[in-house]
Amino acid sequence: MSTAATVSPGARFIDPKVLVRIGSLELAARFVVEGFINGLHKAPYLGISVDFAEHRGYMPGDDIRRIDWRLFARTDRFYVKQFEADTNTNFSVLFDVSKSMSFGSRGVTKLDYGRYLAACLSYLSSRQRDRIGIVTFDDDIVERVPPSAKHFDVTLHTLDKIVAGRPGDLGPPLFKATEFFKRRSILVVISDFYEEPEKVLDAIKPLRFAGNDVIVFHILDPAEVDFPYDDSSSFEDMETGRKMAVVPDKLRDEYRALVQDHIRSLGQLFSRNRIDYAFLNTKVPLDHALFKYLAMRHKMTKVR
Amino acid sequence: MSFLAPLFFAAIAALGVPVLIHMIQRQRTEVVEFPSLMFVRRIPFHSLRRQRVRHWLLLLMRCAALVLLIAAFARPFLRSTALAAVTGGSREVVVLVDRSYSMGYGGRWEEARDIARGVVRDLAADDEATVVFFDSGAESSTRSTTDRASLLAAIDDVELGTGTTRYGPALQLAQGILEDSDQPLLEVVLISDFQRVGVDSAGSILLPPGTVLTPVSVADDDPTPNVSVAGASVQRDLFADRERATVTARLANRGNEPVEDLLVSLELNGRELESLRVSIEANGPATVTFDPFTLEDSAMPISVRAAADRLPQDDVYHFTVAPGDIVPVLIVGKPGNAGSEANLYLRQALAIGTSPAFAVTERAISQVTAADVTAAGVVVLNDVGLPDGPIGAAITRFVEAGGGLWIALGEGVRWPGDNLDLLPGPIDGPADRDGRGGSLGFVDYSHPVFAAFSTPRSGDLTGPRFFRYRPLSVGPDTLVLARFDNGDAAMAEHRFGEGRVLVWTSTLDTFWNDFARNGIYLPFVHRAVEYLADYTAPTSALTAGQVLDLSAYPGAAELDLSSPNLVVRDPSEDRVDPGSDGRPGFIGLQEQGFYEIRDTDAGDTDPVLVAVNVDLSESNLDQVDPQELVAIVTGRAAGDRTIGEEREIRPEDLERRQTLWWYLLIGALGFLATETVMSNRLSRAELDLD
Question: How many domains are contained in chain A?
Fold first, then answer.
């Protein structure tokens, strides 16, 4: 697993636990993204959306730094420069809101982590004038916000009111979601992927059929990875409700190996199918996730 | 449902402990919510799935098996009347069969056995029965059995006894059997001729509540004529220096009809010596005196047999007559008529004795010879002193050697002063009692001479009046047997050498007292002479049912009881173990007739004969109403079966009969077996899954 030390030295790390304390999702996203971008000014990835598309009239609220002063000098009017990347992409988050996502051992649930991740990515995308949408699902589609340039707030609102309560199943809802993305989109799938790797791939793969770029964020809690339990306890599957008495000491090593094997298998399968896959541990700051995302977007831009 | 041992259910609490602990632990254990157990489930051997109840059915079956086991140990039973009716129909039947010899009357015995067989055959499959044969005692071959064959065999094998009817022991045995029984219905079938003589013994018996006593009488309703030989006495005398015996038999007619010309015969060793005919009035006695016969040197087996009637057992009386049962008595009196008169009462009293007989020789003091003294067993100095000279010395030697001397102190007694050894003390001159005279004020009834008068109405020794006596000065060591009411000695005993001396301080005639005219005079004289002669009466006959103690039997004194060669044969010529009851020398006399006892190592010595007769009380065939007997031992009238049906069955009996524990045990085993099969299959299935 990656750690903070492996992230770019310029990145500013914000503990997810701190984010949780910020009530406003937008504020938190802005806090993260702005800090992230400021920290990246020396990074080689700047200007990913600098391809000029058109000018549009200045509107109050626009960053005055984006005013094309040259054009002002010629026309004596304020125009703002718009870039191509800001406008031609749909950005949708497919967020797994199944019951298992509500697990969190450190005060931050996977759902929270995913929520901030989705908010940050949406914010990031909205800054690039992407059309923002979101689909939440468990074993079915729970809520859907179609991608739109005006749907950033709706998306945040949707993220804000998410409640994880039902068992999840990747296949049926994602298959249904393929119908929503007729236009090429950037699809970010956020889930804990408690399915067999092959089944996960079978569920994700159709999302790429319309030329979508699919980025998969596999979120797990540290407890799910390390299995730090000591006492023999009755473990209850949050989704099925099935209980099982477990002696953690006896199975910790095997469990860890199985989880790592699962992560490795998912990575290999997604890689073979040209799907970007990132494993996120909720103890890792969101900056790291954003860094991974931008690295992937950069790769996409290059390919495109 | 009730339980005999409900405390066993405390074990159920123990059964619940692991389950309880499990439940408590389950509650106390914090459930850890985990997103998915997908990976955990793949790890087969390190989960604690066994701590969780996965197979409720198996748990329930195990618990049910244990509960059934515990319930079985708690010994359950049902009190429901329906079940009791199903399981409570069997009976405990005790068949009491009278085998006293009165049952030999006519065909009673066979009839009784047939009835007993019928009762046994009519038993239901579940009924338990005991056949008890009784006369004066009771015995059963097999106790509380359902094996009819053994019961019938016992009935076939039993023989008529020689004892008397006593219902007590039989009913007591039945009482014990019924009290030990767990059967709901208790029945006693009493097959008997219901003689009245046997009822007294049943007075203290009370059968368990609810017992149905069914009397079955085999007695005839008609009058039962029966003549029995009630006994025989032997008059002995000497004829030509040989002892002769004259047998007089007593007969009793127990019937309501007179018996004419009944043939009664005297048998010696089974051979008839003489037969006589006798007529007996209804319910009356008769005596038959046979001609005398000379006794042999050994005991002779004599039987008096009447012509057989319907009850043959009491038609014969066996006894033995041994020689030597005569006590020779030498009476030394005053010469002439005076002596004859003084000896009159004494002579007459001694002439009457039969057992023993007294061979009296009278001699005047001047005519007595040393040979007379030597031939005597007892010497009586009746109103004479000790003769002088050799005769006196002979008497002294006689006493010293073990002879008996009776001194009656009268007017004419002059005792030589140089030979006072035979007297307990000096004698004074005659002392008179005024008025009505004196009487005996103290009598030592423990002494053999007076023991016969110790019981009430056996003679009043204070009746005779004594007008004159010779005061006898006795020392402190002298045994005074009787004293007058003034304290002077009336009779004293003195030991000299091996012999005994009795001193009677008055006369044995009527001159100084009226004792000789009193009814107790004769037995007094007999006892005194027998005591002086150290006489022990031979036993002529014993009664069936008695135990013979050979060591105390007069005729068997010379037998070596510890000898392995001691042979006892019963009247049936069968050999009897002389120590059959574990004590050597004791023989149970069960048969009527003569037992022979001999030591085969003793050469040609004559055997010791023991005559055994039936108890004649059994000859009284008077009957009691069977219902009366039933009322005595059950406390209610016969035929009342309702009480039997209402008998309250003890819980122990109910439980033992229902044996519900057995079914519970089978159920528990069934559960365990099913659980084993199921758990094996489930284990295999889980192993396959893993």
Answer: 2
pLDDT at position B650, please? 67
Contact A103 B31 (CB under 8 A): no
- Residue with the two structure tokens 């004559």: B606
Q: How far is A247 from chain B (nearest CA, A)?
A: 6
Answer yes or no: is pLDDT of A293 > 80: no
Residue range B169-221, pLDDT digits in tens: 999 899 889 888 888 788 899 999 888 888 888 878 888 888 888 888 888 76
> Residues B563, B601: contact at Cβ < 8 Å?
yes
| C-alpha distances in Å from residue B17, one per residue of A46, B20, B22, B55, B63 | 71, 5, 8, 19, 12
Report the chain B residue with the minimal C-alpha distance to residue A111.
Answer: B35
Same domain, A169 and A73: no
Beta-ladder partners of B480: B492
Do A144 and A264 have their domain in common? yes
Which of B32, B45, B50 faces A235 most closely, judged by CB atoms? B32
Q: Does A117 lie in the same domain as A74?
A: no
Same domain, A145 and A252: yes
Q: How distant is the Cα of A223 from the closest Cα of chain B, in angstroms?
A: 9
Residues of A in contact with B38 (CB under 8 A): 194
ipTM: 0.76
Residues 9-28 of B with CB under 8 A from A: 26
Question: Residue A1: is its pLDDT beyond 70?
Answer: no
- A272 shares its domain with A125: yes
Kindly report the three-state secondary structure assignment for every residue of A119-163: HHHHHHHHHCCCEEEEEEECCCEEEEEEEECCCHHHHHHHHHCCC
B330 and B390 both lie in a single domain: yes
Question: Is pLDDT above 60 for B287?
Answer: yes
**Residue B133 host element (H or E):** strand B128-134
B75 is a domain residue: yes
A123 and A159, same domain (yes or no): yes
Return the number of other C-beta atoms located less than 10 Å from residue B647's C-beta: 17
Q: Which residues of A touch B29 (CB under 8 A)?
A: 232-234
Q: Provide the whole-model pTM.
A: 0.50
Confidence of residue A304 (pLDDT cuts 50, 70, 90): very low
Parent domain of B352: 326-532
The range of the structural domain enclosing residue A72 comes to 52-84
Do A146 and A68 have their domain in common?
no
pLDDT of residue A183: 76
pLDDT 10s digits, B421-443:
888 888 988 999 888 889 999 99
Same domain (yes/no): B353, B308? no
In a domain, B537, yes or no: no
Look at residue A285 and tell me whether its pLDDT is greater than 50.
yes
Q: In the beta sheet, which residues pair with residue B329?
A: B360, B378
Binary contact (A194, B36; C-beta < 8 A): yes
Q: What is the CATH number of the domain that holds B145?
A: 3.40.50.410
Give A-chain residues touching B49 at CB under 8 angstroms. Answer: 244-245
